[in-house]
Each structure stands twice: as C-alpha cells, then as structure tokens.
Write a structure and sequence with these properties.
With 390 residues, this protein is α/β, with parallel strands linked by helices. The protein folds into 2 domains: 248 residues, Rossmann fold; 128 residues, Rossmann fold, CATH 3.40.50.920. It has 13 helices and 15 strands. Strand 10, helix 10 and strand 11 form a beta-alpha-beta unit. The chain is globular.
C-alpha cells in the first residue's frame, strides 16, 4: 500500500475511483457529479481520475446526480456519488428510489448542517434524515476508517444477498478538509477484493423492461418484506467482507460496533464519527484513575446492530449517548435507536446528550461534564443539551 498525507475528501475520492476502476473488466463505473461544500473535492477527484471504462457525468442538481447513478446501476455499472446537507435533501426522492430499486450505489455523505439558517459545519441531521430509506448507513471516525469503509461498502452492497445501496458518512471539515497519513490501497489489491459488479436485474436492449411500474398493495408489502430480509443479511455479509478485507489488505477495519473497555464497565458512553476520538482519550484518562467506564463506537446505523448492542451492555448500569443530531420533538436519533434496542432492560439508565450541533466543538471538558452528570443521575430524563464550552 502507498502511505500518503491526504485530506478526507482526497481519501474518499481515491477509494471511490479505485473501486470504480476495479470494475473495468465488467460494465465499468459511473458517477453523477454535482458540487456542494464540503464535499466538492470528492467530485473533483473523480473527474480527474483516468478511468479505463468510466463516466463522470456533470449534472444540474443533486436530484439528477442520483438519477445518473440509478441509470448507471440499472445498466450494470458500479455507481457512486457524493453530497452534503441540502444537496442530500434535494436528492431525497431519488435516494428512496435507488433503495427500492435494490441498486448497490455508494454515496459519500460529508455531514453538514441542514439550513436555513445556513451553516457549513458538521451536523449529522442531513444523512440521518434519510434513515427510513432502504439504504445501509456507515459512520466513519477517521481518514483510514473512511477508505476502508468505502471498499467494504461496495462489497456488501453488491452481494446478491443484500443488493442495497450504502451511504458512508464523514464529518465535514473535521475530516473532509484536514490531513492525516492514510494507507491508500493499490489498484491490484482493490481488484482482488472487489469482484466484478453484477446487478441481476440490469436492463438490456435484448430484453427491454419497465422499471418502477404501478403495483398493488400486496406486491408493495412483499417488496418491503424483501428489503427487510436483505437488511437482516447485512451483519453476516459485513462480517464476511471484513474477514476478506483482512486477507487482502492485511489490516482489520472497524466493524459495525466497536467496544472498548466494556468488559468490566458500569458506565458506557456511545458515540460515532470523530467524537469517538475525543471520547476515547477521556475514557483512557478516567480509567487510569480507577473508574469502570467504557465506550462503544457505533459505525453501522442501518441496519442498527441491536443484538450486538444488547450483548455489549448486558452488565452495564448507565449509558450515555452522544448525539450530533436532533429530531425535533423527540431528541437524539442514535439515542432513540439505543433505547429501542434495550426494550425489556429497565434496569439500564440511558441518557441522551445533544452535543456539537451545527459544528460546535465536542471537547474533553464537555465529555467530562457529561460523564460526571451521568454518574450523578438516579434516573433518565429528557435529552440534555450541552452547549459549547469556550
């Protein structure tokens, strides 16, 4: 592998490009391309890559960008794109269509606050607004985690037991525009890891069909059941893809759920993306003082790994969930999933903390304050808003 100091957007563009090039012996690749801060450099990287058999199609909107991906994937190509914030919102109709068409498209979502008021900083409300679409969703912690996850996502999405698109999220600016040393896998290794993309229901001139025609309620019900069953296959397929990744690249990528110091923990904090990096340092410091505290990194949001989470928290007394998102009238979105996963476990106190919304820094001081608050609690309350500490 080639180690390089690159931005997160460069890393994402590289991973998408070598994945697309790996399909050159089959139907090639294609991407719908429309710029929006802070993901624009990903599209620029794709446009500059010398594909053997690939097309990067500039369009007039994010809605059309996903439309290009839908058409390309239905033609059997490996399809990809990237977007952020209101671009994802504008793309919404075709995002749902891609999932219901069972197309293995990969989309990079560089998390940015939805406006108005306009804000270009990180907030997960944009990608999580798509949580009910038939898409897998992965949340990445670092530049390396991003590269690895993109490659794994292609392999899982294109597996015929799944055949669902996948969204891979990263923190805007915190990852997209900062630089880290990353192992960028060589093309020959990616060729080994990603088999040729084969979409079994791809269209052809020889056998013309209508896609997305009118159905009756019964057919729609069966269709939704098939999507659910495909989602239920994801954990097994993801596990297999991870093991194959280790064989090919010699490194183990982060899994759906990463547990650290949870074996003896009485208190556990749950977070995702770059918040985990700060949280990890705080947990290490407090464990050094003798506190029984652990952390769980949530990487896979859809399908949500409920069984794995219950197993990880079986001996835990208190759980704090850090949410960089907000569902108006409810609370943090990851918190909702955690509490649902722990139905029947009333002995576990689960408290939600809304942090870093709109790009606010999630500092060690904020996390220490959250931990102290969690220790003091006798019962859970409504979600707690943690404002930025100067």
């Amino acid at each position: 592998m080639a180690r390089a100091l690159v931005t997160g957007n460069h890393a994402a563009g590289y991973a998408l490009s070598v994945a697309g090039e790996a399909n050159r012996q089959a139907r090639g690749c294609a991407a719908g391309a429309y710029p929006i801060t802070p993901q624009t450099e990903i599209i620029e990287y794709l446009r500059s890559f010398a594909f053997t058999k690939g097309y990067i199609v500039p369009v007039e909107s994010e809605h059309s960008a996903m439309g290009v991906c839908i058409g390309a994937s239905l033609a059997g190509a490996r399809a990809m794109t990237a977007s952020s914030a209101n671009g994802l919102a504008y793309m919404n109709e075709n995002v749902f269509a891609a999932g219901y068409y069972r197309l293995p498209i990969i989309m990079i979502a560089v998390n940015r606050t939805l406006g108005p008021p306009w804000n270009i900083w990180v907030d997960q409300g944009d990608s999580l607004s798509l949580r009910d679409a038939a898409w897998m969703q992965f949340y990445t912690e670092s530049h390396q985690d991003l590269v690895d996850t993109i490659l794994v996502a292609f392999r899982v999405a294109e597996d015929h037991r799944v055949l669902l698109p996948a969204l891979v999220a990263l923190d805007g600016f915190v990852v997209s525009h900062t630089q880290m040393v990353v192992d960028l896998p060589e093309q020959q290794l990616v060729d080994r890891y990603l088999p040729p993309c084969h979409v079994p229901h791809q269209v052809s001139y020889e056998h013309p069909v209508t896609v997305g025609g009118l159905t009756w309620p019964r057919e729609t019900e069966h269709h939704r059941i098939e999507v659910q069953r495909a989602m239920e296959q994801v954990p097994q397929v993801l596990s297999e893809a991870t093991e194959e990744f280790v064989k090919v690249f010699g490194r183990r990528p982060h899994t759906a759920l990463s547990c650290e110091y949870t074996e003896d923990a009485e208190v556990v904090l749950i977070a995702c993306n770059t918040m985990v990096r700060t949280l990890r340092n705080v947990v290490k410091e407090r464990r050094a003082k003798g506190e029984k505290i652990g952390l769980i990194k949530e990487k896979l949001f859809r399908p949500f790994p409920r069984a794995e989470l219950r197993a990880a928290l079986k001996n835990v007394k208190k759980v704090g969930v850090l949410d960089r998102n907000h569902s108006p009238g409810s609370g943090g979105i990851f918190w909702q999933e955690v509490t649902t996963s722990l139905q029947g476990h009333s002995d576990v106190l689960v408290q939600d903390y809304l942090v870093g919304l709109g790009g606010g820094d999630v500092t060690p001081a904020i996390i220490n304050d959250i931990i102290d608050d969690l220790y003091r609690r006798k019962q859970a309350a409504e979600p707690v808003w943690k404002e930025v500490v100067a």
